[in-house]
Amino acid sequence: MSDEDDIILSELDDEELVQQMFDDLYDGLKEEIEEGVNILLERGWQPYDVLTKALVGGMTIVGHDFRDGILFVPEVLLAANAMKGGMAILKPLLVETGAPRVGKMVIGTVKGDIHDIGKNLVGMMMEGAGFEVVDLGINNAVEAYLEAMEKEGPDILGMSALLTTTMPYMKVVIDTMVEQGIRDDYIVLVGGAPLNEEFGRAIGADAYCRDAAVAVETAKEWVGRKHNQKSA
């Protein structure tokens, strides 16, 4: 491709630029996304609008195509990484402007389990949907979850397991939350290859999410419900 064919982002009008950012996100082009975010900010866009209209808008398309099997994990990770580049610029500005929050999630793989690709993907897709995500990493004992929930005050606790042997540990965490009288303060979402809906119900989780795209849709739905109850 010759240089003349290169799209110069700053020459596009707002609408064209947002469309181009959708494409760049889809293609996982981090530098282009960072440039696009900066251009919109220079043009006087509010940080929250850049987040929702350009980044979340673009990641929604990625999420749908991932759900429909058009995109696969490596491509989604690239898109999420590009999104992170844009988010890094917006985060301090969002804090400053007191932008509304979609919600906050603490996520981690359970004790005895060191798998993290699925969990990372969920975390990235949740950030892509505008959630604040605190990732506890792998091999988390019940204490780690409880501590994080107390410290971070999230709306959602997400737990992941990829082994049939570590799945039951999710119940240990939920049972402990029940004992401590804090179970109803949080939305508990669980996921991982060996799980299913029945298991999620049996251990007392609010929902089982079969993949990252479903996790985002489920999280939005539950947080929306939770906020409605509070204001009712």
Please tag this protein with its features.
Rossmann fold; five-stranded parallel sheet; 2 domains; 9 helices; globular; 57% helix; 5 strands; alpha/beta; Methyltransferase, Methionine Synthase (B12-binding Domains), Chain A, domain 1; 232 residues
What does this structure look like?
- It is built from nine helices and five strands.
- The protein is of the alpha/beta class.
- A five-stranded parallel beta sheet has the order 2-1-3-4-5, sandwiched between helices.
What gyration radius follows from the Cα positions, in whole Å?
19 Å
CATH architecture annotation name of the largest domain: 3-Layer(aba) Sandwich
Query: Kindly, what is the distance between the CA atoms of the first and last residues, rounded to a whole number of angstroms?
Result: 57 Å
Class from helix and strand fractions: alpha/beta
CATH class of the largest domain: Alpha Beta
The CATH homologous superfamily name of the largest domain equals Cobalamin-binding domain
**CATH topology group of the largest domain:** Rossmann fold
> Strand arrangement, largest sheet?
2-1-3-4-5
Number of DSSP helical runs: 9
Helix-strand topology string: HHHHEHEHEHEHEH
Helix content: 55-70%
Number of E strands:
5
C-alpha geometry:
globular
Q: What's the average pLDDT? A: 92
Sequence stretches where pLDDT stays below 50 over 5 or more residues: none
Share of residues in strands: 5-15%
Biggest sheet record: 5 strands, parallel
Q: What is the domain total for the residues?
A: 2
